[in-house]
Amino acid sequence: MKISYEACSPGDHGERIAQGELDLPDDAGRAAILGALENAVEQESAVVPGSQVRVIAARDGEQVVSHVWDHR
Amino acid sequence: MSGQTFDAGVPPTADQLTKIVYQNDAGVSAVAVTSGTDTTTSSSYANMAGTGSTTSFSFTKVLAATVVKVSIAASWVSNTAASTVEIGVLVDGTDYPCKRLPVVSGAGVDQVGWAYISGLAAGTYTIQARWRRSTGTGTPTRAADQWLCLSAAECT
C-alpha cells in the first residue's frame, strides 16, 4: 500500500519540514507504519534532532495516521 | 438566580448574595477520531489531533476576577508497551497539566483531570486538548473508540 505523508513542526502554524510517499506491505500493522514514517522523516536534513515532529499520513486520500514524536 | 426578588434602590441582603450562582460553561463532548489514529510518543506536550476530531474550542471569559476551571476526559490505548501519559490543556500559550496516568501495555483507559487557571483577563481564549508521553515506550493511541470531552467554566 502507498502512504503519502507530510511532516511539520507542531502547533497551529507548524512549518512543513518533509513530505513524501512510502510503499509498505499491505499487511503492515500500526507499529510498522509509524516506524517507517519516523525513519523516512528523520532522514530529512530539515529535521533538527531533539525537536518535536508531527506527521500526517493518508492512504487513498483518507487520513490514517496523525503521529507526534521527538526526533532522536 | 431563581427564587429571589430585588427591588430598585434596595441593596441585596447578605443571604441573597451568597445564593447568587454565576455559570459560564462551554466545551465539546464525545468527540471521536473519525479516520485513522492519533498517536504520540513525544515527551513534550502536543495537540491532540485526528481527522474529524475536534480537540479545541473557543471560550469567552466574561469577568476579569474569575478563575477558569478546565476539565478534560480522554480515552486512549497504550499500544506495544506500557506508557505514562499526562493530559492537559493549552490556554493563552501556557500548558496546564491536568492528570498523569501510567498504563500497562495494551490497556485502554479513560483519563480524567482538571486545572484551575487564574490570572486570565476577560476575553476569548482557545482551549486546546494536549497530551504527552512522560515515561514508557508504548504508543499512546486515540482512535474511533477513544472519545474526548473538554470543557471550561469560569468560577468565583
Give a written overview of the molecule.
The complex is a heterodimer of chains A (72) and B (156). Helices cover 18% and strands 44% of the residues of chain A. In chain A, strand 3 and strand 4 form a beta hairpin. In chain A, 29% of the residues are buried. Chain B has 156 residues and is mainly beta. In chain B, the strands form two sheets. In chain B, strands 1, 2, 5, 8, 10 and 11 form a six-stranded antiparallel beta sheet that branches. In chain B, strands 3, 4, 6, 7 and 9 form a five-stranded antiparallel beta sheet that branches. Strand 4 of chain A pairs parallel with strand 2 of chain B.
Topology (SSEs and partners):
The complex is a heterodimer of chains A (72) and B (156).
Chain A: E1 2-8, E2 16-23, H1 30-42, E3 52-59, E4 62-70
Chain B: H1 14-19, E1 24-32, E2 37-40, E3 46-47, E4 56-61, E5 67-79, E6 83-91, E7 94-103, E8 108-117, E9 123-136, E10 139-142, E11 147-155
Antiparallel strand pairs in B: 1-11, 2-10, 3-9, 4-9, 5-8, 5-10, 5-11, 6-7, 6-9
What attributes characterize this protein structure?
heterodimer, A: 72 residues, alpha+beta, four-stranded antiparallel β-sheet, 18% helix, globular, B: 156 residues, mainly beta, Jelly Rolls, six-stranded antiparallel β-sheet, five-stranded antiparallel β-sheet, 58% strand
The helix-and-strand class of chain A reads alpha+beta
Ends apart, CA distance between termini of chain B: 15 Å
Share in β-strands of chain B: over 45%
Largest sheet descriptor of chain B? 6 strands, antiparallel
SS summary, helix count of chain A: 1
Q: Give the overall form of chain B.
A: elongated
Count of individual helical segments of chain B: 1
Radius of gyration of chain B: 19 Å
- Which runs of chain B of at least 5 residues are low in confidence (pLDDT < 50)? none
Estimate the global geometry of chain A from the Cα principal axes: globular
* Secondary structure: helix percent of chain A: 10-25%
